[in-house]
Every structure is written in C-alpha cells, then in structure tokens.
Amino acid sequence: MGESVDVVVIGAGITGAAAAYFVASAGLSVTVIERGSIASGTSSHCEGNILVSDKELGPELELALYSQDVWRKDLAEHAATWEYEAKGGIMVAPDEASLTSLRALADHQRSMGIRVEDLDGPAALREREPYLNPALAGGAAYPQDAQVQPLLATHHLLKLARERGATIITHTPVTRIDSSGGRVTGVRTPDGVVSAGIVLNCAGPWVRDVARLAGEIDVPVMPRRGFVLVSQPIPVTIRHKVYSASYVGDVASGDADLQVSPVVEGTPSGTILLGSSRERVGFDTSFSLDAVSRIARAGVALFPALADLHLLRTYSGFRPFCPDHLPVIGPDSRMPGLWHVGGQEGAGIGLSVGIAKLLAQALTGQETDLDLAPFHPDRFPEEAAA
Ligand SMILES: Cc1cc2nc3c(=O)[nH]c(=O)nc-3n(C[C@H](O)[C@H](O)[C@H](O)COP(=O)(O)OP(=O)(O)OC[C@H]3O[C@@H](n4cnc5c(N)ncnc54)[C@H](O)[C@@H]3O)c2cc1C
Q1: Does residue 163 lie in a domain region?
Q2: What does pTM read for this prediction?
C-alpha cells in the first residue's frame, strides 16, 4: 500500500478483471482491490451464457453484439482457456400462442442484425435437441449465442492483466473513496491508502454500497437473487442452451416476486445446469425450496428425461439489477474521477469484455466504439435513486 497508480479497480469479479486487462493493455497503471478472493462475488455464483437472443432491442443489444465480437475476435486466442463455446441457443414455445409471439420477436431481432432460424413444429425442434418434449409447439435457433466458464475467465483475465503490469490485492476491503476539492484522489483500506486519479467501482451487486464510500453518492443497483441446479454428470444429451420464450419477459420484468423460467444446458464436464429464478429479496442467502422445485419442474417440462436425474447441488447468486434494465457505465459527475460499472443483471459475464474495451477507450481519451451515453450514471432522477 501507499503506492500511486492511474486507476484503482474495486472488485475482482469478471467486470473488474476485464477492466483491469483492457485498461492495463491501454498503457495505464492499474491496481485491483478485492475484499474477498478472486471471483468470490456473483461471478462464481452464476452461469456463463453470452447471449444476444434475450436482449431488449436498443442500447443493451448493441452492447451485447459488440461484446460478442470482443469475445470471439479480440480474445480468440484464449477461448479454450475459459471454455468459450459457440454452442448456440434455442428458444422454445410451449403452445401456438407463444409461438406466434416468438415469431414476432424474431422478426424484430432480424431487423437488428441478430441471426434467427425459425424451427417449425416439434420435429424441427427435436432435430436440434432430440430429448426435447415432443409436446412443444416450435421454437427459434440463435446461432450467435455462446457460453464461457466465468471463474476461468475471471482468473485468466486477471492473469493477463498482471502480465501487463497490474497489481491484484485480495482479502482487502476498500473502506473509503478519498477526494480533495470534490475530485477523487484514491482509496483507503485497512492497510493504507492507494492514490489514483480514477477509481472504477466494479462491485457488482454491491456497487451502491461502494458508491456510498465516496459520500452522498447513490447509484440504484440492487441484488436480484437467482438459483441454479447442477445435475450429476451424464453423456452429452443437451447440445444447445435451451430456454423458454417466457425467459425473455422475465429478464425484462422488474417484478420483486419470484419468477421462474427454464434455462437448461449441458457443460463440458457432463453436468446439466438448470436455471433460473429471479426475485428481489435483498442479500438473503437462505435456501428456497419453492424456487428450486419450480426450476426443476420447469426444466423437466422441457426435457422429460431429466426427471430421473439426481442433483449434485444447488447454488444461488445476486444479479446486479438496475430498475431501468440498462447497465450503468461511466463517470459520476458528482465526483470527477469516480466511475461505475453495474446493473448488468443477468448479462454481466457476457457484457464484461465489451464494457471493459469501451472503458479503456474512454479512460485514455479515445472516441469509444459505442456511445456510452445511454448507460450514463447521471440518468437517474434523485427521487428514483432515493
Ligand atoms: C443465477 C445467476 C445466473 C446468471 N447467469 C448469467 C449468465 O448466464 N450470463 C451472464 O452474462 N451473466 C449471468 N449472471 C449475471 C452475472 O453473474 C453478473 O452480472 C456478473 O457476475 C457481475 O460481475 P461483477 O464482476 O460486476 O460482480 P461480482 O462478480 O459480484 O464482483 C464484484 C466484487 O466486488 C467485491 N467488493 C464488493 N465490495 C467491495 C469493497 N468494499 N472492497 C473491495 N471489493 C469489494 C466483491 O467481493 C465481488 O467479488 C447470472 C447471475 C446469477 C445470480
């Protein structure tokens, strides 16, 4: 401690790791400070889907498409290290009414540059996924959807950042963000002070708490809990990420009550992941039999063969939720030098590297590849923040 760097990153989840890598690669000196171990927050309590199919049309979709390119092109040489798999997604519609809605959504998505293939009827579905329930009405295939292993990605991005000169400090909480004359001067921890002109708040669902370490600064990012079920390993039976058309609506909703929409996928180790639930219950880590049994039932409705499978475990995590469903990315005008990245909700793994590349451009005074204005932290009226 006691050193001075260009940028302090608070949080060593995937957002902080990706930011450290891109910012260090751009030539700035970086120190990452994490209160726990690497990826001890949401980045180790999630799934690793990199989706374009579930995004609302608009700035988040543009960011998702941009991030896809960063994963696929800029970071192509690391794909095997973090188990990047361009497996594609399949959205299924249980009945004719939801299939009609899905077709309308697909038409919109095509107009925004998303590749979508209609799957007409159960036979077309089962050609792609032989074990799908034959009673399903039809679906749509999204070849651009991919997945990554979030823990491996977080660790490896930090390794790459370290190779570019970044310092990673773990098991050390940031307890205060210091300022002088209204401008950020660095951060304080129990071990001392790190001076920096830029402090990047990458604290995931804790972004709001960390913003408050700078004083009366509120950023309305809240936790939205989700459970995931992990099955015993089986031979590969599910080839894509498969989810119900209702998932898109649940992602877009801000409802505090429990919502469950099935998302089922296989992993390279043979386990099947069954997700997921959404509910706003604060940072409550207790087990919910209701959520877990509803996820299991919803998964079995898609793949009846899963009914005989044993579960190895369940886990839950907190998505960083923002009331207007857009990530918060950029400088806080209330305290020059303080930047936030939060509110990515259930897309923080997929979006991380695109956000990080844009941040590195912004922090080095370049024009950003995408306009960051829609994500600006200043967009919240004071009453919403309160
Ligand atoms: C069930 C579930 C499924 C999900 N599935 C997907 C998916 O398929 N695809 C996808 O893209 N996203 C998914 N997500 C969302 C994704 O997990 C998050 O958006 C992402 O992990 C956020 O990463 P982060 O680095 O911003 O936050 P985190 O990983 O939470 O990292 C923030 C870090 O900040 C640290 N911190 C907090 N306060 C301090 C402090 N004072 N000092 C120092 N350090 C501090 C924390 O310890 C933590 O490690 C899912 C989430 C859940 C819960």
Answers
A1: yes
A2: 0.95
Residue 179 and residue 332 in contact, taking contact as beta carbons nearer than 8 Å: no
Q: Contact at 8 Å (CB) between 322 and 342? A: yes
Q: Does residue 244 sit in the same domain as residue 215?
A: no
Ligand 1 center to 223 CA (angstroms) = 10
At 98, list the tokens. 């939801």
Per-residue pLDDT of 239-280, as tens digits, reads: 999 998 876 666 666 677 888 989 999 988 899 999 999 999
* Same-domain check for residues 27 and 110: no
**Which neighbouring-strand residues pair with 92?**
139, 244
Nearest to 348 by CA among 1, 4, 6, 16: 16
In ligand 1, the atom with minimum distance to the C-alpha of 342 is 26
Identify the pLDDT of residue 381. Answer: 72
**For residue 62, is it within any domain?**
no
CATH number of the domain bearing residue 92 = 3.30.9.10
- Cα–Cα distance measured from residue 372 to residue 67, given in angstroms and rounded to the nearest whole number: 14
How far apart CA 248 and CA 251 sit, in angstroms, is 5
Say if ligand 1 is within 6 A of residue 330 CB.
no
| Ligand 1 centroid distance, CA of 235 (Å) | 30
Question: Count of CB atoms within 10 A of residue 203's CB?
Answer: 28
Per the DSSP assignment, residues forming a β-bridge with 265 are 273
CATH number at residue 217: 3.50.50.60
Residue 290: HSE in the Cβ half-sphere, 13 Å Cα cutoff: 6
Residue 242's domain comprises 88-143+222-321
Q: What is the number of structural domains in the chain?
A: 2
